[in-house]
Structure formats: structure tokens, C-alpha cells
Amino acid sequence: MAAEIKGWDRNRMAARAAQELQDGWYVNLGIGIPTLVANYIPEGVHVTLQSENGMLGIGPFPYEGEEDPDLINAGKQTVTELPQTAYFDSAESFAMIRGGKIAMAILGAMEVAENGDLANWMIPGKLVKGMGGAMDLVAGVGRVVVVMDHTSKHGESKVLKSCTLPLTGQAVVNRIITNLGVLDVVPGGLKIVELADGVSEDELRAATEATILG
Questions:
Q1: Catalytic site residue 52?
Q2: pLDDT of residue 1
Q3: Which of 52, 67, 194, 203 is catalytic?
């Protein structure tokens, strides 16, 4: 009998992140796991997804064979349009973000610190094309939710007392959703909101370098 797999996979993490969506919100989805959130919008919740490369109103991923190479998200993945989809240039896109029109951003991360510091745009020594829209997003949106694996592929915690990589923003993260559970950034550290399937509180704490209160 196969051993039970503990925690959430990428799709379960995205589905959990989709529960953060509220009716009427404009929401930006970052590259990686967050793009999957578009497939799990709860029934009865009407949100408008914004992509900083010029789309307002993003539908779910297309079925195989129905892809349109001109319709892509910020991660260059093919997406679908909706009847109400609008298109615009980069200046207008970032005017929305910098003007506080986007209620929430759901982003990936390499590291998050217990005070809400976020590192998600580069690893020193590795070639990067640029920081993308992340720095504007974390400074301009109302709420920042990070979705990521709790540990690196080497088993090291990515939820830290302080980030070691270059910061995208300081004290900007509100909630962290990982394969092990959900944590909120609160004064003095982190608070456990929810444990992933089959994960104990002790296991979550052991995988976390940051201070967990309570």
C-alpha cells in the first residue's frame, strides 16, 4: 500500500489560494503556481483577473488545441479571454497597479520573512530577464498572498526569520500559503491559520525557520 502523501500539491495550493478571492475584486496572479488560481475560482465569486502585460479579465487555461498564441499571461502561458476582457498598454496596466485599483496580488516567492519581507525576483549569480511587475505590485495592491513550497528542494525552509535574497518589498506579505499550510503575518511573527492535509502542527513548525506564535 502506497504511503499517504502529506500536504497539498500545486493544484491544491492554487485551489486554497482561490478561496482568498472576494466577489467584485480585481486581482493580479503572479508567475508559477498563482497562474493556476484562474482554474479554481469559487462558484458565485466574480473576480476580474489582471495581467500586467495588458489583459484585464483573464479566463482559465485553454484546452489543448484551442490555444491562441496572442493571448498570454505575464508568464507567457496561453490563456483564454472572456466576453468582458479588455486590452491595454503597459503604462495603463501599471497605472492600475500604482493607483491602488488592484485589490490583491497572489504571487510566488523564493523566500518570505516573518515580518512579511518578500524575495521573489532573483537569485544572485543567476541570469534574470528583469524584475517584472512584482515590485510595483507589492507596493500598490491592497493585499499580498504568497503561494510557494514551504521548503527548497534541498529541504531548507523558505519561511525565514529574515530573507537572504534581494528583496522585492519590505513588510508587504499578508498571508503565506504553502504545501504544508496557511500562515498569516502578524506582529511578532507568524500565526498558523490552517494545516494542509495530513500535516501536523509539529511538522509545520519543524519546517519553518521563522517565529510561529502561539
A1: yes
A2: 46
A3: 52
